[in-house]
């Protein structure tokens, strides 16, 4: 069981309406959001932030945003968020070669130099101590404008919140996320870990 039990999806009508967003991104409402409903102001603020961060206003595609989220979650070790991010990347049209080789983004030909710069930014920004430096900035500015960099850091920061929430909560992972985790990440040792519903 997780640290705190998720509430029913009908617990808060405003959260339920906002959470329809996740039916597109994941195909289900995440247990993390259902748990946040214990304080509906948090669940509603989180969903609205998620929608704002994931809106496309430049050339950072929905698929790339989810791959940025995966790299960030991989750096922090949150298996729940790794599976969610790779599932959303698939649902938003990431190329099969990229999904199959996300672990090798630095060298695999399926990734462009612009994508590598974005994903390296995610990796460095998600580490403690933070690894963003002048070299990362220079690479980013070779391919992306300031608004696009803000979008990327929005994703990285959103998943910093989620990584801490879900790893501390021991959020039970949903079947759909498990399927995606096993399909795309399993060959590299991905497993449910503390998110199998039996942590506490």
From TrEMBL:
<keyword id="KW-0575">Peroxidase</keyword>
<feature type="domain" description="Carboxymuconolactone decarboxylase-like">
    <location>
        <begin position="40"/>
        <end position="120"/>
    </location>
</feature>
<dbReference type="InterPro" id="IPR003779">
    <property type="entry name" value="CMD-like"/>
</dbReference>
<dbReference type="GO" id="GO:0051920">
    <property type="term" value="F:peroxiredoxin activity"/>
</dbReference>
<dbReference type="InterPro" id="IPR029032">
    <property type="entry name" value="AhpD-like"/>
</dbReference>
<keyword id="KW-0560">Oxidoreductase</keyword>
<protein>
    <submittedName>
        <fullName>Uncharacterized peroxidase-related enzyme</fullName>
    </submittedName>
</protein>
<dbReference type="Pfam" id="PF02627">
    <property type="entry name" value="CMD"/>
</dbReference>
């Amino acid at each position: 069981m997780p640290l705190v039990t998720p509430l029913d999806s009908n617990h808060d009508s405003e959260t339920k309406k906002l959470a329809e967003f996740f039916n597109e991104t994941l195909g289900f409402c995440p247990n993390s959001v259902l748990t946040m409903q214990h304080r509906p102001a948090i669940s509603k603020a989180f969903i609205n932030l998620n929608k704002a961060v994931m809106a496309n206003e430049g050339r950072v595609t929905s698929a790339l945003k989810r791959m940025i989220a995966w790299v960030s979650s991989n750096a922090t070790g949150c298996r729940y968020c790794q599976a969610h991010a790779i599932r959303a990347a698939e649902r938003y049209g990431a190329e099969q070669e990229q999904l199959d080789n996300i672990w090798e983004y630095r060298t695999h030909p399926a990734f462009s130099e612009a994508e590598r710069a974005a994903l390296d930014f995610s990796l460095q920004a998600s580490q403690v101590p933070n690894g963003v430096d002048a070299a990362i900035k220079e690479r980013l500015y070779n391919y992306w404008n300031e608004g696009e960099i803000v979008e990327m850091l929005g994703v990285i920061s959103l998943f910093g919140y989620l990584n801490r929430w879900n790893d501390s909560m021991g959020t039970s992972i949903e079947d759909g996320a498990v399927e995606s985790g096993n399909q795309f990440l399993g060959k590299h040792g991905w497993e449910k870990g503390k998110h199998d519903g039996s942590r506490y």
